[in-house]
Hints:
By secondary structure, the chain is α+β, with helices and mostly antiparallel strands. It has helices spanning 33-45, 73-86, 132-141, 162-165, 179-184, 188-210, 235-243, 253-264, 301-316, 384-416; strands at 10-12, 52-56, 62-69, 90-97, 103-110, 125-126, 250-251, 268-269, 275-279, 285-288, 296-297, 336-348, 351-363, 366-376.
Amino acid sequence: MKYFFYRNRLISLLFVGLFICCSSNVYADSISKHSIASALTGFAKQSEFPNVLQFKTVDGQKRDGIVEYTFDPKVHNDMASVYLKYRPDYACFVALDVETGAILNLTSFVKSDEQWDNLVMRADYPAASVFKMVTAAASLDMGKLSPMSIIPFNGKSTTLYKSQVLRHKNNKWTRRPTFKQSFAKSINAVFGQIGVFELGADNLNNYAQKFGFDKPMNTDFTLPMSEVNLDFADKWQVAEAASGYTKDITLSPIHAAQMAAIVANDGVMVTPYMVEKIRDAKGRVVYQADNSSTSKRVISAASAKSLRSLMQETVRVGSARKSFQGLNRYKVYNDMEIGGKTGSLTGYSPKGRHDWFVGYANKNGRKVAYASLIINKEKWYVRSAYVARQFVYSYYTGIAKHEAERLNLSDSVVRLK
């Protein structure tokens, strides 16, 4: 089945493979992840996800395969409605299953008739304050700081000057937020100090690589690397990196969602993927996704738990609080844990103010990670955090509805007996 595809206005990224009832055995002429990436990436960049693709099998033969993707059609349609309602200049959204890495949603939106490739498949957006997640993770994991550590600073929370970092001196105007408060309110001077005086260049760069920067994502599609293009021998560039106050650190939306998944998955990284299964013309399974061997620990479970508390503070009282106000009015948010990190910086591809919200949600053990990016030329139409809120509502409402239908069906079966 093919879902709605808005070619110029909304780039809708959902195609679902044909369902064929057959054996689930995987045969010798199987297809490798590398072969899938070679066949799929060109289409994905053009926002196309065909049901049938030609692959090269492990024994070198060319075969047509019927593809089943990981995408959730209901969530996609709901996200498309959000973008069509608010019509930002540019936008994209990624969501993935925290424990498996299965990509549940890919949506890209361009309001004008400008010709852009799929915005989700790019990695040249400034990471901005999203990179504070790396700085915070390193600080917690190395035992340098706890959520309640005090880091004093002077001046505005949104600025980053050398006097605030390299020449800081306490005075009667000095503010003394906790580390948790500094993360939630994204205080640049605090994170600059952490980078220079607590972590140093080598440790910061090491944790950036642990979180996937400057490394290819070995999966069933090819994605440009997120990069840290800084000279770590320069203390000031260390401060800029630690606070995310630089255009030289770039990030892809898929990688951003993967970073959030690390935190939600108790410090374990999973690899995002798009293809769940491929069958040949006879219905035989020639490829089945299996990410179990690619998972690896990035930070300790205790560090991930502490970082989640910082991300929850961002939603509760920090830079994303306005977008998440009034959750108690909706039943779906009851007993739900939501956390995230905002980021905002001007970028040039596309040109405009880049607004990030990267986060996770967890209800009854069902975890999802996501990255929301809005780019506006001049006027703000909707915030990335609010789009993320709409996704969380849609996703967990769908789960609740499915569970209710399942229980009703079970009750009906019992009554029939």
